[in-house]
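Ticket #603: bound-state structure for adenosine-5'-triphosphate.
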Amino acid sequence: MSATSNSKTHNRNERFVYQDDEQIEKPFNWAQLRRLFVYMKPYRKELMPVLLMMVIGTLTRLANPLIIVIAIDTALDGKNKQLVIWLGVAMLALYIIQWVTNKYRIKHTTIIGQKVIYDLRNHLFQHIQRLSFNFYDKRPAGSVLVRITNDVNALQDLFTNGVVNLLMDCIQLFGIVFILLFMNVKLGLAVMITVPLMFFVSSALRKRIRFGWQDVRIKQARINAHLNESIQGMRVTQSYVQEKNNMSFFDHMNSINLKSWNKASALNQAFGPIIEITAAIGTCILFWYGTSLIAADVITVGFLVGYANYMGNFWEPINRLGQMYSQLLIAMASSERIFEFIDEQPDIAEKDTAQPLPQIRGDVLFDDIIFEYEPGRQALKNITINVQAGQSIALVGHTGSGKSTIINLLCRFYDPVHGSVKIDGIDIRDVTIESLRSQVGIVLQDTFIFSGSIRDNIRYGRLNATDAEVVEAAKAVHAHDFIMSLPDGYDTQVEERGSILSMGERQLLSFARALLADPRILILDEATASIDTETELKIQEALKSLLQGRTSFMIAHRLSTIRNADDIVVLDHGVIVEQGTHEQLIEKGGYYNTLIEAQFRFI
Ligand SMILES: Nc1ncnc2c1ncn2[C@@H]1O[C@H](COP(=O)(O)OP(=O)(O)OP(=O)(O)O)[C@@H](O)[C@H]1O
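RESOLUTION: The complex was predicted; output attached.
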């Protein structure tokens, strides 16, 4: 396989490490299984008739061999033709009952199972939407995606037929054991003597199977996480001509996954022969001991045939339970990963006493803020910024100086370690998150365009805005002309991330979206990409409309934006080194002056 030959070309362990999925190596977790079944609770009523059908179906199956016993012993000598007919009718009736109950059971378990999966997926998605940025910082998006798709799907089999089949097999098994012992205790014990042996041999195997399937899931999760990253980063991959390298890495992971699957599957298949051998030994014992009992007139031929029939039915559920064990293990590995997410609590939690933030004016105070993403590494040190409503603040500084961090704190994506952020004098930790974020608008550097029409993308700012308001917002930020030049105007369909639009056009769309939302506080992470002078002028004009009457924080990259700001906060390594207007700071000839000179040599 090419993975082996490529392994010398680079050290794969140095890149794409998805540590997060390595952790689960625990034994079978019954508490987890019980927790999973909580999702079935709302469907208890619907489940009752299914269980009833299952019990009826199983009992009729158990009655079949009894008819055979009677037929051979009392009817086959041809003297009692009527009894043969009646036995035939009874057999047919039993088969019909089995057919009807099976059909009902399969149909309804599928429906209930799908509903449970639907609930679980919704619950998981609802939960991860609440999780803080901190959670997403630590995980590749792919691994989050895998849990909502693959891991939830892996539970599908369990919920659609697994649970009911499990119960059915258990009832059938106990029923047969009871009948075998009831018919003849000695014979029953003799034929079942091999069962403990089988459990003993298979218990070591079961452990290996469990680890095998866990390993498969980990490998699959890695592939999916990598796939997701690869698709997201396809442009970068192609620009750096990394396709071959990427392919070799993928091939490597894929072959590891294949090996892991083959191993688990081979272990799983080892179950079958163990059961077959045990069954064969059991059958030998039955006929050896059974014939001697016939010779001694203790049992009849019909009895032995019926007994053999029950024995056949005895191994069937055991075999299925063995297979189901691996299904259960796959489901348990997935549910562990799902619950790991569900148990994750958002770092940014609302206080019980949190009140909605009233309609704000827009005064903002960063009061002696210290913040660290990781303990011991301060990203912001003693930051104090006092902003009056309606002022525009430009945040400037070299890369990594803490500009985005300030913005993250204002939206309460993280909480400071020390100090507080206040809006209109109210600590933002005391208000509900929704009321805070709905009054703070953000225009990100990498404007996210959703699949849909241009109109819908603008309307994302305020879902109940009318068409006229959408057009009005677009006009105000000078986006209307370019939208009208598109094939279907406002109805033009754009794909995810808006690749048919230029960088400048995407910016204007995001301005229109923000204007429609009409927040009192606006955060703008200005795009760094250079655009032509004409678009630059348009954007500056658009910005003026957008910023009017709002408090704004801008991570500014264009000199024109920085110049127009009411106040410029200059950051260096998480510390404010200078603050003032453009003219004041240039006059001062300090850090800002050097920074601006370095960035914009034409000044
Ligand atoms: N999620 C994170 N986890 C850990 N450290 C982080 C995280 N985000 C940022 N940092 C660190 O915090 C510091 C400030 O980062 P920040 O993103 O605020 O800088 P910035 O000024 O916005 O940079 P840029 O102009 O490059 O966007 C940097 O040292 C960065 O490495």
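RESOLUTION NOTES: Confidence is low (pLDDT under 50) at residues 1-14, 18-25.
TICKET STATUS: resolved
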